[in-house]
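Could someone model S-adenosylmethionine with this protein?
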Amino acid sequence: MPPTVLQESHTVRKNDFAPLIECDDLLRELIACGGPMPSDYAHMNRALRRLGDAVKAGVIAREDVIAYSHDITSRHLEGTMQARALGKKYGYSGDFEIIEAIYTMQIAQEPHLRRWDLYFHSQAAPNAVRNRKAYFHQLLNSHSAGRARTPLNVLNVASGPARDVREWVLDNPECEVFFDCVDAEAHAIERARKLCAPFGKRVEFYHRNVLRFLPTKGYELVWSAGLFDYLTDRTFVFLLKALMAVTKRGGEVVVGNFSDYNPSRDYMELLGDWVLHHRTSDQLRALALEAGAPADSIEVMWEPEGVNLFLHIRR
Ligand SMILES: C[S@@+](CC[C@H](N)C(=O)[O-])C[C@H]1O[C@@H](n2cnc3c(N)ncnc32)[C@H](O)[C@@H]1O
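Reply:
Sure, complex below.
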């Protein structure tokens, strides 16, 4: 039986709904044969692109697509990464559990769900998330290199599971690097504390909203990934100013933000209801200028997928 949204809308404007019907047909076909194989990915991506175009053109209402996604996901794909994103357990898609699941490539055990998670993890966006962990590690390597016994203080803003911190410290047990991690979600802090428990005082946690509180110790490196792309421009500038203020002279603020080049955007927005503020390099540069960064202190870099941009500001 077709999902409710299609039953209701189908007779009203059948042609307008063609991209949604096409997507539904394909999803049902793939569900029936145990999930998409890699040879089906391009077909899925094309159907999602057409659906995304119809939503952007105002031909299909976004709410109808989201209602459809909830319907088909709850009937057939419960337990997949897609269902977890859509479920918004902590109030929004992309919470620390999802990020942790992306880092560790979690895949459902049930045979009829496995291929859906493989499809999820094959996309550019989860690859970019995994790449940004490596990007942070490279930054830590370069900032800590040649400091001998001079400690490096790092502020990790919206630290989530802090798996990135854990992995780096495990690989660099002798380094004099101290992390202050701030996150607004109590469960994220609890999870991160467990992951970083072996490192004692080298990693401190603050359960706080970074828009209201930042530790003011003074840092050589301030890092934030997976937060600024949820912020409006106004809040972006407000928080960036605050991060610049706690960065020592000679130090660096590095902020991640998804770029407008994101091949997974339709999948994320339509099947995961995962909406971000995608920004171009020029937009990031303009926001940094607005926050008071001198033009020659700003640089925008990216990870190998080209999906996650990194705004660097030298102090
Ligand atoms: C997408 S996760 C990113 C986690 C981590 N930075 C990473 O890349 O692995 C976003 C995190 O931001 C936290 N967060 C969202 N808004 C926040 C705020 N205003 N203050 C502090 N943390 C916040 C969430 O609780 C969540 O853990």
